[in-house]
Amino acid sequence: MFGLYWSTEVKIDKRIIAHRIENSAKASQFVSLAKAIMLGGGRMLDTIDAGCLPEKLANIVRSGVPAGTGDGADSTATPDGWGAALTEYQSLANAWVESLSTAGAFDKMLSSGAFVRVPMRQSIRLVSTGATGYSPQELEATPLTALELDSAQLEPRQSVAMVAVTRELLLRGDTASFNLLGAELKKAVALEVDRSFTQSILDDSNVQSTSSSGVSQDIEAAVTSLVTGANARIHVIAPPFVIKALAMLRSPGGKVLRHRRDGWSGFGNSVYRYGRIDR
Amino acid sequence: MTGGQDSGIQYIATDALTDDVIVLDAAQCAANSDTVLLDSSDHATLQLSDTPTDGASNGTSMFQSNMRALRARRFWAFSLLRPAAAFVVTDVSGITG
Fold first, then answer.
1. What is the pTM of this model?
2. Across the interface, which of A208, A218, A228 has its CB nearest the CB of B25?
3. N or C: which end of chain B has fewer CB within 10 A?
């Protein structure tokens, strides 16, 4: 039984690793495509003719998209085929977006599955007061409770980032210049999304706020004040200097609280709770 | 700096915040991500600045300086399902411990 469990776990791990390798390759291809688009100055066919694109990426660029009709349906194929020629591009773009999880707070939370993923422009129905069951006594009437629903809609937002580089850098075929372009593009997009994402929370007048009097106790008070359930996924999003300060928290004796993933530890007569903050 | 985890609470560092800390229950937030659109220009004139201004300003011609510009437009969405899912600590600059 133990062997079977172990075997299943290894298979799952292998699948996860294979998925990550595939995604990493696709994200890299997306950067190649971005580089080609830059070299072509927006004129993609020029880039293909110059032989700057690998064959697979050149095929993406060459893919013709059937013309649509006024009602949004594909004029030549079934409606499901609308934009099908772009799916390969979409696959690369999705892999690249997934790779942003190491560059931005929003993407880190999104890729970890912490958020509730909801289709955009769809009405969301959420339970604000759940129906409650009762255990009535004999002959006692069973109460009925209302199920109150609020509605909301997930509106798409747009974040734009620009990267400008010299043509010489683009023409260099070495790994360093390629990685530099990829890293800058990733950083620019992830940071802009983070700015907009955090600003939307800071601007929300319904969200409680307090002025700081000490970071660690403020965070403790904030975590306590959140209304959460058992499935809560609490995140503390902070400027780097705050994370640094938390990582270097010291006991009254001046000893740095060392990194550990869990548990409690005692210093002298006091007990401090601490965990792992990677630097 | 990658943040870390303490008793199930995830810490994330971001340059997008300078003076505030956001404590968030992500399970009470809806979000999604859509495609990224790429576009490029070798003729645009850009303000190569972190703080571009409207009106008259010094621009850099991509053509004149032999540069290429890439614009990435990403579509995404985020919404707090309940206001009580987040808490903001403000004015954290200079305060530690």
1. 0.76
2. A228
3. C
